[in-house]
Structure formats: structure tokens, C-alpha cells
Amino acid sequence: MPFTKEKKExxxxxxxxxxxxxxxxxxxxxxxxxPIQADExxxxxxxxRRALADYQNLLKQTANxxxxxxxxxxxxxxxxxxxxxxxxxxxxxxxxxxAKTSGWAEGVKYIVKQFKDVLENFGVSEIxxxxxxxxxxxxxxISGQGEKVVKELKPGYRLNGRVVIAARVEVGExx
Length: 175
Description:
Order of helices and strands: HHHHEEEEEE
Largest sheet: 3 strands, antiparallel
CATH architecture of the domain at 73-172: Roll
CATH superfamily of the domain at 73-172: Head domain of nucleotide exchange factor GrpE
Radius of gyration: 36 Å
Strand order of the largest sheet: 1-4-5
Number of helices: 4
Shape: elongated
Number of strands: 6
């Protein structure tokens, strides 16, 4: 719908009226402006600095949370994959002496080694237990009494230093 000349003139008049009203609000007598007192200025400066510090802390906290999330994002999938890795290792321990030299056994050994290398690249490490002192933060005692690990029943794993699966062990007395 094209503008007619009358509509354009009316629009221009309205804009001029609005501009004039705005200019009246802006124009004020310099004597009416109250100077900010030094103590009030100090309070405002303090509030500004606190707000800026809070914002900077929020940025740091968000960055740290994001880093932690990325670092441990693989934990859920590892909980599914690690039992498969354990089963492969167990299958190798149950091979008789004749079958250990066969081609398929060598292939499974190679797959276990590759699996271990990939897990290590993602920050997964196996918890050492054999001959170690029992550590309740990374081990679960299934049987026995004492302070020394006698036998590892199921391996445990850490992801970037944090325990994801506790090692299950049998404990006994130190000799």
C-alpha cells in the first residue's frame, strides 16, 4: 500500500513531535544535576568490582565444569566396554598349553594388547592389586581378613585418576 503525500507529512509531524519531547527530557539545567558524593562513588565502585569478580569467577567455574565433563564423558561407555575387555583377558587365561601357540590364540592376545593401548590412550588405567596393601578407596574385599591383597578376583580401573570400577580382591595377613 503506497504512502500518500498526506500520510508522509503526518508521519513526519509525529516524528518531529516525539523528537521534540525527547529533546526536552534530555535538556536540563546543569544546576539541577546533583554531583555524586565520594562515599556514594566508593560504594558504586565496590559494587561494580564485586559484580565483575563474580562474573569472572562464573566464567572460570563454567570452564572448569566443562573440562571435567569432557574428561569424564567416556565413563558411561567404559562401564559397558571394560567387562568385555576383562572377558577377553579371562579367555586367554583358560587356554591350554597346546592351544596357546595356535594362530587364533595369538590373534586374541594381539586384540587384548590393542584394547589395552586404546584404553590407555583414553586415560584408563588398571588398578594394581597383586601384593599391594589393601586400599578401600580403590578395592573391594570379597573375602579374607588382613591388610595385604592375596589374590585379585576381578580387576579394577581408573579413568584419569578417578576410580570407575573398584578391584575385587581377596585379602590376607602379611607374611
